[in-house]
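Hi Y.,

Following your request, here is the sequence exactly as I used it, all 64 residues.
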Amino acid sequence: MSRLDTAYYELGRLDLLAENDSIILHEGRIQADGPTSEIFHNEKLLADCHLEKPLRMQDCPVCG
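Below is the corresponding structure, written out as tokens. Let me know if you'd prefer a different format.
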């Protein structure tokens, strides 16, 4: 496995986003650990960790 600067691991399915927890790792440190919906609404955290919201949370016309 190669080293990643940022890793995102979702515990569960995307369609159950509000009911799941996620852990965000960046540069070997835990940056966030909590409800996925809260994490993906934290714009500063996403920017700092070089992440973007899933398409379903970006008002994607194809994804819903």
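The chain has a mean pLDDT of 74.

Thanks again,
Q.
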